[in-house]
Amino acid sequence: MKTVRTWGLALIFMLVIAAVVVAIPVVPRMVEDWRRCGEAYDRIEAALTPVDLVESRPPGVVAHGELVSSCDTDDYFASIEQSYRPGSSREQVEPHYREAALRHGWRRVADEGSCFEKDGVAFSLLMAGDEYVVGASTVSCDGL
Fold it and tell me: Under a CB-based contact definition with an 8 Å cutoff, are residues 96 and 56 in contact?
């Protein structure tokens, strides 16, 4: 019985050593991804202050699903977006975001369209069928 116990402890020890050997090169990359994505999210948050255009919505509009955030760890582009259902408020959607963005220092990138930029962050509005999506990203309007 003692041999089995010793073999079991040796196997556990080898598995722990193998996990450490695998984790050594992975952990610094994970820390760097966390840091750089965090910096990108901080830029988005700073640009959305004092008015969070992603959370803002005209009266009668209902959020559809959860707020989604992502960060591409190849180039550290971060984004957040939220889907909404406008209901009878559909014609109020674009003017609501345009006026709020312009009032809070965002600049419209093109005469047509709904993409604005501020401090290296792009804010966009995409109407699609019976819902729309608003998002903020560290990708410029040209890259969206």
Answer: yes
For 27, 68, 99, 109, the CA distances from 138, given in Å and listed in that order, are 25, 15, 21, 15
d(CA 84, CA 87): 9
Collapsed DSSP state (helix, strand, coil) of residue 31: helix
CA angle at 19 for the pair 15 and 21, rounded to the nearest 5°? 115
Cβ neighbours for 53, distance < 8 A, ≥ 6 positions apart: 97, 100, 101, 104, 106, 123, 134, 136
pLDDT tens, 88-122? Answer: 888 999 999 999 999 999 999 976 678 999 999 99
For 84, other C-beta atoms within 10 Å of its C-beta total 19
Cβ atoms of 126 and 133 within 8 Å: the answer is yes
Q: What is the pTM of this model?
A: 0.77
The answer to whether 102 and 115 have CB atoms below 8 angstroms apart is no
d(CA 119, CA 101): 13
What's the one-letter identity of residue 2? K
